[in-house]
Amino acid sequence: MKSLASTIAAIWRLSIPYFRSDDRWPGRVLLGALIAIELSLVAIQVILNEWYNRFYNTLQDRNWNAFVSAILFFCALAAVYTVLAVYQLYLNQWLQIRWRRWMTQVYLRQWLDAANHYRMQLLGDAADNPDQRIADDLQMFVQYTLSISIGLLNAVVTLCSFVVILWNLSAHAPLNLFGAHFNIPGYLVWAALIYALIGTALTHLIGWRLIPLNFQQQRFEADFRFNLVRTRENSEQIAALGGEAAERERHLNRFSRVVANWLAIMQRQKQLTFFTQSYSQAAVIFPYVVVSPAYFSAAMQLGGLMQTASAFNSVQGALSYFITAYRQIAEWSSVIARLSGFEEAIAAGRAAAVTPPAVEVVPREAAVFAVDRLNVRLPRGEPIVAAEHIAFPAGERILVTGPSGAGKSTLFRAIAGIWPFGSGRVMVPKGAKVMLLPQRPYFPVATLAMAVGYPAEMGTFDAARVAEVLTAVGLPHLVERLDEDAHWNRMLSIGEQQRLGIARALLHAPDYLFLDEATTSLDEAAEAMLYRLLQDRLKGATIVSIGHRSTLGAFHRRRVELVPHDNLYQVRDATLVSAAE
């Protein structure tokens, strides 16, 4: 019961925001229409139940006129039922896509909010494969929520409608066993209830393991797909290393988990299907077995027998909804668990940015970018780098050096505001533009012009400006490909990508540019050319570089060093370097 309550609470938490959103009125109208149609369909079933009595009595009485009248009435009723069923499906699908669109927008906004996706990964990414949770789980959640909710509504309304009919029919057809009459009020209702309760208990006993198995199946499928994508993204390195056999073995190992879990699902579903199919087949004749003594004792006509059997099946079917929808409910439960876990991971990522102690990014009126009492830590709390105070005046050129693994890149991430783990303040002048260029820049799958201008909107930079910058960084051969849509991280060499990264910096013209070994794949001459270009084009910008080459000293007027101190690295500032160093 505790688990059921928590699941219901999770369903409510995941579902209700849409019906309170900006799209709430279309959503409410569509949902109301679905409910109204479902109630109408149940009403038609009630009318058909009474029709069974009249129709089979006309057959028994061989009344031709009454038979024709009953057939015509059924055709009219069937036509109405068909129209309602068609529009129920249409409106259901319409609500699904609106609801899914809204939830996708919300989840993307929360996941990609202020580097939250990055913090989630740093925390261990308890919500594995966010792509699957947004692309697949949201679609399944909306589909199953509507399907199961409407099905449950049908079961409840059907039960309420037919239990009265069946109770009254019980009085007209008393229980007759071995020639003796037993006056048990509503005995047909009690028989249906007992039959359904036994079936429900046995179904859950057999099938409850499907919930965790379905959860694991989605996880294993997503892991397998993710690693296939990783192989495609890194095909050049794999080919260069001759790693095809290793990759194939790794993929087959992951796929073996998919297969093993699927076999476990097959085994459990086989057992569940054996029972549910046996239960469903027995349910066809069970009402006739219960009512037949009254019929053969001439206590009712054929029409009454058929009406009673129909009403009994309706009540028993409503009470057995849990049995018939068990596999769907199991898959729904696993989807709810995955989305709940994703929301918790999003909340944890947000909390990491604001829960003390944390690196705080503070806007300031002063024109100097500065770091004060900064202590950078790993997500688990181990200290890495400490800086008492660093100032980055406008137009300064600063070189950051230190041993490999000292935490220079992590220091940059903290200064850029995407690494919250630690304490201290990063004070940024109001309105200042800050850009961090990593060693391997990211380019979206888009036209080259959009990829270079990322993350600016399309049209921010005109084609002539982009072409001029590409030529300036040494990529004139790419100018003719500005409108080509491609996966540029795969198509270009690392050196070309780093040149494009510098081109991006020139286009955006940040006030503070942090270069995290952003030119290491270029030869010294090319690197020197790009640094001279940055100095010429971004005269007022502060440029801070991480680098190991001695030749970089010629392009920086100040050095910041990371030196070992008490199991971490301490920032030592204000070492001047000459322009010729």
What do you see in this structure?
- With 581 residues, this protein is an alpha/beta fold.
- It has two domains: 353 residues, ABC transporter type 1, transmembrane domain (ABC transporter transmembrane region fold, Up-down Bundle); 217 residues, P-loop containing nucleotide triphosphate hydrolases (Rossmann fold, 3-Layer(aba) Sandwich), CATH 3.40.50.
- Helices cover 62% and strands 13% of the residues.
- The protein contains 18 helices and 14 strands.
- The strands form three sheets. Strands 3-7-4-5-14-13-6-12-11-8 form a ten-stranded mixed β-sheet, with helices on both faces. It has a two-stranded antiparallel sheet with strand order 1-2. A two-stranded antiparallel sheet has the order 9-10.
- A hairpin with a 2-residue loop joins strand 1 and strand 2.
- The C terminus is likely disordered.
Main attributes of the structure:
two-stranded antiparallel ribbon; alpha/beta; Rossmann fold; elongated; ABC transporter transmembrane region fold; 581 residues
Q: Share of helix among residues?
A: 55-70%
Enumerate how many helices there are, as a single number: 18
CATH topology of the largest domain, anyone?
A: ABC transporter transmembrane region fold
Placed side by side, the strands forming the largest sheet appear as: 3-7-4-5-14-13-6-12-11-8
| Number of β-strand runs | 14
Question: What percentage of amino acids are in beta strands?
Answer: 5-15%
> How can the largest sheet be summarized?
10 strands, mixed
Q: What is the level-2 CATH architecture name of the largest domain?
A: Up-down Bundle
Q: What is the level 1 CATH name of the largest domain?
A: Mainly Alpha
Name the average pLDDT. 87
Q: Round the Cα radius of gyration to an integer and report it.
A: 35 Å
CATH H level of the largest domain: which superfamily?
ABC transporter type 1, transmembrane domain
How would the global form be characterised? elongated
User: How many structural domains does the protein architecture include?
Assistant: 2
Uncertain residue ranges: 577-581
- Class inferred from helices and paired strands: alpha/beta
Spatial gap, N to C terminus: 73 Å
